[in-house]
Amino acid sequence: EKYCQYHRDHGHDTEECRQLKNQIEDLIRKGHLRRYVDRDSPQGRREQRREEAPRQQEEQQQQPRVPHSKRLKTGGDEEVITFSEVDYEGVRLPHDDPVVVTLLVELFTMKRILIDSGSSADILYKHAFDQLRIPADQLKPVKTPLVGFAVETIHPLGSINLSVVAGTAPCQTQVEMTFLVVDTPSPYNAIVGRPGLNLLEA
Fold first, then answer.
1. Which residue among 13, 19, 47, 198 has its CA within the 20 to 30 Å range from the CA of 190?
2. pLDDT digit string (tens) for 76-107?
3. Which fold, 100-200?
4. Which residue spans traverse the membrane (predicted)?
């Protein structure tokens, strides 16, 4: 009987949704919801102190502030992304084509990357990993197998953190993704799953 409007799914109420609360708090911290925050409430005073603390620290140190996030945003303010009829030019509808993108991985242009919101991991196939010329001894051991990944259970060769740039200047973002490297045939070079999509805020 419970329904979350944020996730558009059953299992918990919107008011109970922790992820929604975290998103709202993150937006408040970034200053996007400032006009909705009551500065006299305990929560509002706490957020105001959070906003003032970095400024005070910066004045004391007289050094440029370094962001804690690994994200690198360029292009100024965030843009609103909308779609119109113009975006459908040259597209045959209806279609269920997969979303396949090109990203900059460790400064290499990597094509044929599948976007899969159903994947709980970011995957890098061994044939693509080999072309990055990263020594195999840099892979961190992974004990957990991938279940439901293919017909059989797959044991990753290891995991590795790689720099990924999405978009083109001036509108691009850079994150560090943790990929599981697997040695199995695939038409794709990599899969960006939910962890990568969340990092990219896609």
1. 19
2. 566 677 778 887 788 887 888 899 999 999 98
3. Cathepsin D, subunit A; domain 1 (2.40.70)
4. none
